[in-house]
Write a structure and sequence with these properties.
This protein folds into 2 domains: about 100 residues, Thrombin, subunit H (Beta Barrel); about 130 residues, Neuraminidase (6 Propeller), CATH 2.120.10.30. Helices cover about 0% and strands about 35% of the residues. It contains 1 helix and 19 strands. The chain has a 4-stranded antiparallel sheet, with no helix packed on it. The protein has a 4-stranded antiparallel sheet with strand order 5-6-7-8, with no helix packed on it.
């Protein structure tokens, strides 16, 4: 299907690009990475074995380097210990479905350390679920009727969820099931007070929100309480130049304000220093 045909009210989920997570340390603006990576999970062709993944989507790296992966087409969350050759299913893995023991195309996962649980974006079931890390068999629905994609949590325990159907990011304080609009919420579009299928979200220490604005090919920053965002990356139309993005997904911001973006259709990770235009 051509991309032009995908632009409709029903959110589209194309082949995944993993969302990025925060770094606890500053990264030097001129830091370089080794060009040859090593596998930390999967790498044994696609499949549903314990040493396989099938279109992994979101991931979360815990303090001990344990990786939790939203294994999208296997409808499960898999835990991979550092150095392990096999993963362990810790949520779902019972086929696609709507049961409390099942997931349907999970797109993201984070760890809630205070409650020793996973919080999962259970996308096609239109709900966010909590799953105990202590041999949890079933998930508990904590947010319903939301076409959720990416999610994250701030230091106060507030949850931020990208709603791709309503073109907004909602903030849920502890115990709140309705939430409030934290970004977007003015219909789909390319104005600064609008989003067009937001995918992933990052929140910094000042509670500013960074959103990968998928169909607008940009990353937008919304300060706490702001009525519109500020474009901090892309926004120059779809393309592959260093001033452009093409369907951005994951986004993370380090403590220097440098933005790192999974630029999905360009098959690259881009680094945008604070205030840069490219």
């Amino acid at each position: 299907m051509q991309k032009e045909e995908e632009e409709e009210d029903t959110p589209t989920f194309r082949l995944p690009c993993t969302p990025l997570r925060a770094s606890s340390v500053d990264i030097h603006p001129n830091a370089k990475w080794k060009q040859n990576a090593i596998n930390v999970a999967g790498g044994n062709e696609r499949g549903n074995g314990n040493n396989q993944l099938y279109y992994p989507y979101g991931l979360y790296v815990d303090d001990d380097q344990t990786v939790y992966i939203a294994d999208w087409l296997n409808h499960r969350i898999v835990e991979w210990k550092c150095g392990a050759t096999n993963g362990q299913v810790v949520a779902g893995g019972n086929g696609e479905g709507t049961g409390a023991h099942q997931l349907s195309y999970p797109s993201d996962v984070i760890v809630d350390k205070e409650r020793d649980s996973l919080i999962i974006s259970n996308s096609l079931n239109r709900r966010v679920v909590r799953w105990s890390r202590r041999n949890g068999i079933n998930g508990e629905t904590i947010i319903s009727n939301i076409y959720c994609c990416g999610l994250t949590m701030d230091e106060n325990g507030s949850l931020y969820v990208a709603d791709t159907e309503k073109h907004e990011v909602r903030r849920y304080k502890i115990g709140d099931t309705q939430g409030t609009v934290a970004a977007g919420g003015n219909g789909k579009g390319n104005r600064l007070d609008q989003l067009f299928e937001p995918r992933y979200v990052f929140v910094d220490r000042d509670h500013s929100i960074y959103v990968s604005d998928y169909w607008n090919h940009r990353v937008v920053k919304w300060k706490e309480g702001a009525e519109q965002g500020i474009v901090v990356a892309g926004g120059q139309g779809q393309g592959n130049s260093l001033t452009q993005l093409s369907y951005p997904e994951g986004v993370v911001v380090d403590q220097l304000g440098t933005v790192y973006i999974a630029d999905c259709d360009n098959h690259r990770i881009l680094r945008w220093p604070k205030g840069a235009t490219r």
